[in-house]
Amino acid sequence: MKVDVILGLQWGDEGKGKVVDVLTPNYEIVARFQGGPNAGHTLEFEGEKYILKSIPSGIFQEGKMNIIGNGVVIDPALFRQEAEALEETGHTLTDRLYISKKAHLILPTHRLLDAASEKSMGDSKIGTTGRGIGPAYTDKVSRNGLRVGDLFHNFEEKYQKAVSRHKEMLSQYHFEYDLEALEKPWFEGIEKLKTFHIIESEHFINKHLASGARVLAEGAQGSMLDIDFGSYPFVTSSNTICAGACIGLGIAPRSIGDVYGIFKAYCTRVGSGPFPTELLDNDGQLLRDNGKEYGSVTGRPRRCGWIDLVALRYTVMLNGVTKLVMMKSDVLDTFETIKVCVSYNINGEVTEDLPFDISEGIEPVFVDLPGWKTNMSRMQSEDEFPEEFNNYLSFLEEELGVPIAIVSLGADRTQTIIR
Ligand code: GDP
Ligand code: IMO
Ligand code: MG
User: Fold this and answer.
1) N or C: which end of the chain has fewer CB within 10 A?
2) CA 135 to CA 158: how far, in whole Å?
3) What pTM does this model have?
4) What is the chain's percent helix, strand, coil content, to nearest 5?
5) In sequence order, what are the residues at sequence separation of 6 or more whose Cβ sits closer than 8 angstroms to the Cβ of residue 28?
6) What is the reported pLDDT for 100?
7) 332, 343, 330: which is closest to 305 by C-alpha?
8) 108-121 helix and 179-193 helix, angle to the nearest 10 degrees
9) Nearest ligand to the C-alpha atom of residue 222
10) 123 is catalytic
11) Taking 90 as the threshold, does the pLDDT of residue 298 lie above it?
12) Helix, strand counts (H, E) of the chain
């Protein structure tokens, strides 16, 4: 069988967690392939709300295997908090959660290095989530990282070696820290981590695929935060695009099936960096209020703007999206007019292709579409969609060249229409 991939097409927080949860019944395995606790994937069902950071969003459905793949970076302290919070609400994990031996560990000193680096950059900081993501992936690429599999062989020695290297790096910043306070929960987290199935996930997944299992790969962040193709340097430190699923799980490109590209009916971004369609006016505030656009990890207000088809065309291309999923259109329910950015005007030249540098000189070219001005949040079928909404869907499908297969009209699992 094939591996279907779900990933974000914008700057993250598109609603990946919700869609993975909705689609999980169709699969035997759900696997996270990159990122770490910088992610915050929200799921709402039966009146409860959960925010997952490192644990895949298939965890709530009985009988499904959930894998944290080799491409993910794990902070044991945060992992323990997340796992225990789920266990306290009655969700058993040990028989459902599998962790790759090759996943890298985020050390307490990675978090300190992240914070120290951000502080030293002042106004030009990336605005990271402060979870040590960049330093952990840097160590992976520079071949200094520690992996989950290392926990079982001379770990203390390897840990101390890494920490002394990090302390040396920290001494170059004027940055005060209390490492011991961070180490205690971190080592408690290590003990918790060891209670789960620690596996060679690439063998596990490929064997299951060969015997007919269906696999859903869950992305984190979004394609515009990809380390190669995002708005560099204001990006995360992993490959968030579809190809990242092959690397982050050890599956061959020919095993990829459908690619679900998720986008909001408008656009948001957290942290610093360019955002051509950003709205700094009342409409932006209305999107933030209606969409409750505050970060699920850091609580920071998300920057809001109109949908950007130049960026979306680019990320649809990079990912080979076969099915689009549109989220949060209910947030636009009250708008008289909805603007869609179809191209950029750069010094008088109009382009539909995302340029190398989107940080300045870009004037978005908008098309105005009439709003539907209807509360759609309780609709059960696409037969109930207002005409203006259908026009919005058709316009986007035509511009992006891919069908919108799923429409989400609210945060709850049930507020989802599969077309
Ligand atoms: P993720 O990181 O891509 O999983 O997305 P987040 O969970 O960070 O952010 C999406 C937010 O929108 C969460 O608070 C969801 O509960 C919420 N959400 C998801 N789908 C919808 C929707 O269709 N309408 C509304 N109003 N909220 C939604
Ligand atoms: P999910 O999976 C939105 C952003 C940060 C910052 C940049 C780099 O919930 O969609 P990092 O901590 O990764 O080094 O930060 O990336 N960022 C996200 N923005 N959603 C996320 O994850 C994000 N993960 C990282 O705000 O701008
Ligand atoms: Mg999120």
Assistant:
1) C
2) 17
3) 0.97
4) 35, 25, 40
5) 64, 65, 208, 213, 214, 215
6) 98
7) 332
8) 130
9) 2
10) no
11) no
12) 11, 20
pLDDT at 110 over 90: yes
Report DSSP state, residue 107: P
Instruction: Give the residue, by CA position, lying nearest to ligand 1 atom 17.
Output: 411
Helix (H) / strand (E) element for 308: namely strand 307-308
Which residues are within 8 A (CB) of 217 and not within 5 positions of it... i.e. 6 or more apart?
3, 4, 5, 6, 31, 32, 33, 69, 245, 248, 249, 251
Written as one letter, the residue type at 400 is L
Q: Which ligand is nearest to the CA of 412?
A: 1
Beta bridge partners, 368, equal 339
Question: Rounded CA gap, 30 and 67, in Å?
Answer: 6
> Does the structure show a pLDDT above 80 at 42?
yes
- Ligand 2 atom 25: residue of nearest CA: 38
**Neighbour tally for 44: CB within 10 Å:** 17
- Residue 220 CA to residue 222 CA, distance in Å, equals 6
Q: At what angle do helices 179-193 and 76-88 cross, to 10 degrees?
A: 60
| Amino acid in position 345 | N
Ligand 1 center from residue 13 Cα (angstroms): 7
